[in-house]
Amino acid sequence: MVVYVAVAPYYPVFAALFAIVFSETGLLIGVIIPADSILFTIGVASGAAGINVYLLGIMLMCAAIIGDNVAYFLGKKAGPRIFTRPQSRFFHPDHLIKTKKFYEKYGPRAVVYSRFIPIIRTCTPFISGVAEMYYPKFLAFSFLGGSLAIAFLTTLGYRLGQVAIVRQNFEKVVVGIVILSVMPIFLEAYKARRAGAVT
């Protein structure tokens, strides 16, 4: 009952966070979502506000794993023909090709490793489906990768959120985290632009 009272006021926030983490891989829009900063900031905010970070972490792990599985079956249904799809505002073939190379290099382990790499993690479950990876194996690696990433980032943020200086400068810390997490996205866009200019 105590947990219900402590968590109930945050239900709308929890629902929004679930949707964000799910969408990162489930809807293949992780390229435009700085998920690392969101998860870390969630942990910092939980530590500062005294929210039950364990309950929150379990919910986000479920969101990550469900998103992975939706992407896997989308990839399995789409098949290799997805690589011939023309570029659009929300789809860039280069991201899939780069992820495919990453997957070919690390195999099933890529599902775990990619959880800590922006852009790559968005497409890896999808590529796993395209490659028709054995589903029970994918599910196991998805569970491991999603659980590790969520637990690491939220727990690290939670511990940081309990530090007095962080509580006193919460806004600055959040801005710094966001800047660091979106830098890889801008670097990828810059490299793609330069490569396009050269060709």
Key descriptive features of the protein:
199 residues; mainly alpha; 10 helices; disordered N terminus
Write a brief structural summary:
Helix content is 77%, strand content 0%.
Low-confidence stretches: 1-6
Strand content: under 5%
- The total beta strand count reads 0
Helices and strands, in order, run as HHHHHHHHHH
Walk me through what this model shows.
- This protein has 199 residues and is mainly α.
- It is 77% helix and 0% strand.
- Helix 3 runs antiparallel to helix 10 (170-198).
Secondary-structure blueprint:
Layout: H1 2-7, H2 11-26, H3 35-49, H4 53-78, H5 93-106, H6 110-113, H7 120-130, H8 135-161, H9 164-168, H10 170-198
Helix pairs in contact: 2-4, 3-8, 3-10, 4-7, 4-8, 5-7
